Automatic annotation (TrEMBL), chains A, B:
One Gene Ontology MF term: DNA binding
Protein name (database record): Crp/Fnr family transcriptional regulator
InterPro entries, per the entry: cNMP-bd_dom, cNMP-bd_dom_sf, HTH_CRP, RmlC-like_jellyroll, WH-like_DNA-bd_sf, WH_DNA-bd_sf
Upper lineage: Bacteria, Pseudomonadati, Pseudomonadota, Alphaproteobacteria, Hyphomicrobiales
Gene3D superfamilies, per the entry: Jelly Rolls, Winged helix-like DNA-binding domain superfamily/Winged helix DNA-binding domain
Keywords: DNA-binding, Transcription, Transcription regulation
Organism: Devosia sediminis
CDD domains: CAP_ED
Segments crossing the lipid bilayer: none
DNA sequence: CGATGAGTTGATCCTCTTCAAGGCTCGTGG
DNA sequence: CCACGAGCCTTGAAGAGGATCAACTCATCG
């Protein structure tokens, strides 16, 4: 038997604060080198596509499995994660969401969410009307292609995770995960500022398919080797190159990507 | 340590037999209840989009990791699977491909394949020109949306697999996999004909993240309970409902899907 | 025919789970 | 102010699920 413990905390509920609204033209993410440029027409469509913004606290459920939200989101700032749970509480984290990532695309395209999304840190999301997605595909085929591109990118990350959980050892898995998250954080400029990945060892355990105890011991090994540093509720990556080497991971080969 | 054995056989290479060509209008898959109807305009575009057909033997590599194929495929008949391997030969099967599934979309959209695809049985594929994908998005936004839909569907299946490999026990995993494959086969009419899923226990092991020995013992338990029957190089599912119950799996909730 | 691949089974070992306990920090309330 | 509980991290000990090693059967095939 494996980790039947009810992982995950009692969660807060969504707290839609419609605060200040950043115009897409001034989006702080857009200048980042990770994202491709858009035509003025595309940009203005996206700007109109966005209806509002919401801010959520760490631990808030942004989308719940089984719901069919009327919205599609883009994470503007903060960290979140996608997960599924079995009946008895076993939780599997599927992937992490960082600024620039679409949230809830599966639900928007197919109809109903089959996983949940929870904020890992305080986060801000751009809100889009799901039913205007058709319009996006019809009037801006380039953006339609971009949405497919982003879906393929997610698929690619899941392929990597599956390889990891299925075939890597505990140490390799942990090294892979932290190298992966570090890489993604750096790509969107989060690495520079804080250098901290905001998660608990329970999150790591539920991502790697390990028990919390073994996760702890495994992370300790990485820390003892000087590759990471663990600081209550967050992790600092000290040697991403060596982590990737331990994991036998090539890196994501990330290219310029679209931002919707 | 876990299964470092070099799993996977010496593989045949792609053998493009440009045999008879089925017109898309007469596609044998189209009448199946699993697939949605298309407008005449869409159908005629798809028909022109298709350049040829190829037939491959079981064990042929259809797409190799690292390559950037000029083609995108749809599986017309037969079974295939997507997989990745680590440097030392550990292999992880990511998902299975059945008739109607797109093959190589990731590569077509992002550029380079980061996984391989191998035929599990003799198979026939429809060949599309990758560089005409833009045209599809521009001239037939509905089809563009469909491509995104299919990408989301793949993502959803991967989510399920990840939950399985990460958090289910060996018995649950095996039960889930066979219920899943059975369900998919039935949906495209393969279940009726043969009722056999064409794979070896090594494939099952590489899908579930288990060793071949333990996979064998686990499958035996399912067989002893009368849920499946194993017959060299293939498996017959006897009780899909009970399998799903053992796995704690709800089923895919598959809806009408597009066929490109 | 040997050879090769697939499936099977038992014995042994070890990675990882489970159980248990204790420390640390922080927020809350007396 | 301190007491208290709740998370979170940590560590040791015991047990089990699954890996590894080894051997054997049974088909298929040149």
């Amino acid at each position: 038997m494996r980790s039947f413990q009810a992982s995950g905390n009692p969660v807060n509920f969504l707290l839609p604060i419609s605060g200040r609204r950043v115009a897409c033209e001034n989006c702080p993410l857009r200048p980042l080198s990770a994202f491709r440029d858009f035509s003025p027409a595309e940009l203005s469509f996206i700007s109109g596509f966005k209806t509002s913004e919401i801010s959520v606290d760490a631990g808030s459920v942004i989308l719940a499995e089984g719901s069919s939200s009327a919205h599609l989101y883009t994470l503007l700032s903060g960290w979140a994660f996608r997960f599924k749970v079995l009946d008895d509480g076993r939780r599997q984290i599927l992937n992490y969401l960082l600024p620039g990532d679409l949230v809830g695309l599966q639900g928007s395209v197919i109809g109903e969410m089959d996983h949940s999304v929870e904020a890992l840190s305080p986060a801000v999301l751009c809100v889009f009307q799901r039913d205007r997605l058709d319009e996006l595909f019809c009037n801006h085929p380039g953006l339609g292609f971009d949405v497919t591109w982003l879906a393929s990118r997610e698929e690619r990350m899941l392929d990597d995770h599956l390889l990891s959980v299925g075939r890597r050892t505990a140490l390799e898995r942990a090294a892979y995960l932290l190298a992966f998250l570090h890489e993604r954080a750096v790509a969107v400029g989060l690495g520079q500022f804080s250098g901290f990945i905001p998660l608990t060892q329970q999150h790591v355990a539920d991502t790697l398919g390990l028990s919390i105890v073994h996760t702890n011991k495994t992370l300790r090994k990485l820390a003892n080797r000087g590759l990471i540093e663990w600081l209550g509720r967050s992790c600092r990556v000290l040697d991403p190159v060596e982590l990737a080497r331990v994991a036998g991971w090539d890196g994501p080969g990330e290219r310029l990507r679209p931002l919707i």
